[in-house]
Amino acid sequence: MDGDMLYTIGDLARRTGLTVKAIRFYSDTGIVPPTDRSPAGYRLYDLNALARLDLVRTLRELGLDLATVRQVVDREISVPEVAAAHADALEVQIRTLRLRRAVLRAVAKLGSTSEEMDLMHKLARLSDEERRRLINDFIDDTFGGLNANPEFVDLMRSAMPDLPDDPEPDQVEAWVELAELTQDQDFRAAVRRMAEHQAAERAQGDTTGLHHELTETVRDTVGKALSTGIAPDSAEAAPIVDGLTACYAEVFGRTDDADLRRWMLARLEVAGDPRTEHYWQLLSIINGWPVPPSLAPVFAWLTAALRAAINR
User: Are residues 293 and 250 in the same domain?
Assistant: First the structure.
């Protein structure tokens, strides 16, 4: 009967595809011990040992370590338990490999130095929690101790970088740039000045929020001026400035006069750092959101037009 047959190590090697050396190793370590020995002292194995060896080979091909393999074949833990744990471990490995691939593609695209590649790899490997902590530290340092607009601060805290498991190279590039930007002390100081300006305005009674409608009005009005080639210091710009100052006066409850224009100019100059807009553009790339169009040309035109109007 085949069930009573005993096999030599050579027989097992032919049946399983494993080397004689590997089978001898599993036998010596007690993972697949011999069933019996021949009169000459050679190891012999039955069908149970053959099945055990097939299981060992499969588990090793899946990447399990010897200690775990021994637990499975000794039935200390079940195959489903091992499969679930190993699948979780593989998810982590796959995510790491995808990140490495994205970093390497970004390095190839940018022609980065070895130092830049090392930094990119370290930043890309940060966990979601570590990325949130980095951005929250930036927000705490920038807005801490100020009576800043809570709606804006909440918006920043809710908009965290969420690098996907399989990022594109441009998402890795954007994350590295965003991480470096938030650690730039000059940028932090610039955002802090904006926050201080916000806090001062709130102390004077400005609690009207983020002024989305006013921003859209400025975008549309100045966008038309830019598209038609109206210079900010030209006579044609004067009625555009008049219309926008009237909007600002209404939104902020101020008198439409020369003081308002000086206040608008100061406000625009404080908020005019293009890196603040770039922060949101980078965040959008990382998270796969639509990248907001740049308002830098719009506010640059309005700043120049206000300055020209004040100096007339």
Answer: yes
